[in-house]
Amino acid sequence: MDKRNLVMFPGTEAVKGGAGSIRARVTERLGQLSFLQRPIHFLAAKKWMILLTFMGFLLGRAMILGELSPFAVAYFAVIAFMRRDYLLPVGVAIVAGSLFASFPVAWMVPAEILIFYFMMRGLETYERAELSYAPLMVFVSTFFVNLFSVLIGPSITWYSMMMLTLNAVLSFVLTLVFIQAIPVLTLRKKSYVLRNEEILCIIILLASVMTGAVGWTVQSLSVEHVLSRYLILLFALVGGAPLGASVGVVTGLILSLANISAFSQMSLLAFSGMLAGMLKEGKKGGVSLGMLLGATILSIYFSNPGEVMISTWETCAAIVLFLITPKSVMQAIGKYVPGTQDHTRSQHEYAKRVRDLTADRVTQFSKVFRQLSQSFGQTSGVMQPPGRQTEEMNHFMNAVAEGSCATCYKRNQCWDMKFYQTYKYMTDMMTSIEENPELEAKDLPPEWSRICAKKEEVLGILKQQYHLYQHDMQWKRQIYDSRHLVAEQLSGVSQVMEDLAREIKRESQTMHIQEEQIREALQQLGLSIQGIDIISLDSGQVEIEIIHAYTRGYDECRKIIGPLLSDIIGEHIAVMEETLTHPRDGLATVRFGSAKTFEIMTGVAAAAKGGDILSGDSFSMVELGNGTFAVALSDGMGNGERARLESSSALNILEQLLQSGMDEKLAIKSVNSILMLRSPDEIYATVDMALIDQYTAQTTFMKIGSTPSFIKRGSDVIPVSASNLPIGIIQDIEVDLVSLQLQAGDVLIMMTDGIYDAPGYAVNKELWMKRLIQEVSSEDPQEIADCLLEKVIRYQQNQIHDDMTVVVGRVDHFHPEWSNVHVPGFARMERPRTVS
What we know:
The chain has 836 residues and is α+β, with helices and mostly antiparallel strands. 58% of the residues lie in helices and 13% in strands. The strands form four sheets. It has a five-stranded antiparallel beta sheet.
């Protein structure tokens, strides 16, 4: 490749160069650093390799009871599978560390590593090298190397056989331990949620590394004692007394196995770790004081005065290391320990990142669907419902000219000499066929007989072409309607996804201050609260989850917690759901939410035409979510099963679209398109729906070809009407939305035309229905519905001429069972702003 190609395609050089290009960039970057900055930069880039290599050196030297060395090959095996890039320096460090152990270990550890490496290469040849095989491979390599050492020894005893088996088993177990611990130390485990077993594995790994420092002293201070106490100080500050004591027990046990004379260290470290954790509220100073007291007190019982002073100085050295340790180290450890503030904060941050990422993805999908909707809308806009256009007229003319006129002797006279006259007569004939598809030759004008010699053939060809034209136009109209429906549906999906993204972003707001305010108020009342999670504080959409101690027989949630939240938040809060999440621990998760300000009581009465069982009317009364209650009524064309199917389908589809969050007008248009496409027949249905907000009583009426509705307020009757066609007739349907503010005590009455048209055309139907409603004295919705239906049937002399259905809903104030509970000293909560 010449240099010009490299200039034209700069990416080619990076692909060809591979690692060499990266190495060159790193070298160039290092060249820009000063002489003193280069070592620091190198150590920062290779910190994990240096750490793992140093740990390998100590584990290669570590021994149990002075004759077992199960740590080295187990550590090498885990590094070989998890960090292959560090295998060479770690392997060399392990072998170097084994040289400082007793004589057999110096050659046994390299032999075990070599056998394990050959086994791994063999499995890679057959593509079977998996991490799950690592413990078994370690067991085999350790067992056979130790067996060979026993066989070449002076004698074979039961003790030697038992020890070599124990060494292999410990290597097997330690491999399982290191598999859980290494990913956390190298940050290969992305999740901050650690199980108790994983935390224990990390502690065992760190204690095993300290075992490699047994025998090292600095100014008569034991290195492993200083490091073990330093480790306990870190975990005691992060996890408190339980974790500090646990680390002390595990670390002391492993160190005592390496040096049996230090068996008393286990109780010393456990007690000092517990005491240090109990004083964690005093931060570093309190934890250091607890460690110093615990280690000093037990040293007095277990040691002579000289050893007590040495132990005290070892504790002081660990405290000095602990005090100079950066705060970021404790925060990093705290992220992995459940129950700590750092862990809780990291969980909140991780959940927030996930929600933000999800919201961004949903927003991107929303934009994609909106773009697709615009594309389909442009296509459907270009493809208007066809009519009689110039191209279609030319098609008819060409068909006639090629069919009958091609063999006619008067062809030149008609199409050359009298073109405009012939074209006009053809157009008139097409108009006559369009008005009367069964047109005969005798019905043609007399002058056409004088002009055309083959009028029967021309008429037959035009009728045939018109028949094909009708079929073509029908399919084109179907395609146009389908594309229009797809465009509307894509637009609706885009809107729903946009609302979902806004909801996700709103939930990502952290409200620690509000959660702490609720916690303090509940604790002041003496309630045991284990956790509080505020999902939303928007007005009318409050959602709070509380984990508390469940006491069977007492209803603290409805009688105390709910009324207290109502007072703090400033609106009525009720219990939405209560679940026993941890029955053994006696904990329950309770979900609190905004209670409704208004409640809707409903009633319905219906009768089929002629007293039949099946009516063509359908009704529905359902909650759509977000505090919206829907009262709906639909009248299908005609009577019987077919009308019932159309009306119920219209209501079901409309309810599902509204529950998904789609806009009301768009939902109506979608239902209209679906009804038009599902059947070529003229099947339509009326829709009368009232959407009542149960928090404000604001009501939106959607009336599509339906009769007027009525609102009875005291002695007044208010009509609600709109003039438009039913759905399923034309494509571009007009949707009229009427918004009214209802009040407590208002009665909403909706009916089909079977009731509204009962008095006939000679009577003012609206005035007649108002008078009928005013005569009903009952306030019960069901009694009102039954009374109205009975009055109409009696008016028609007990004859049912059409399907009749009346739906009644009464708006009432929702009265909470318990009044608010006020805690002195707690003001009303300040709510965060809603994300728009």
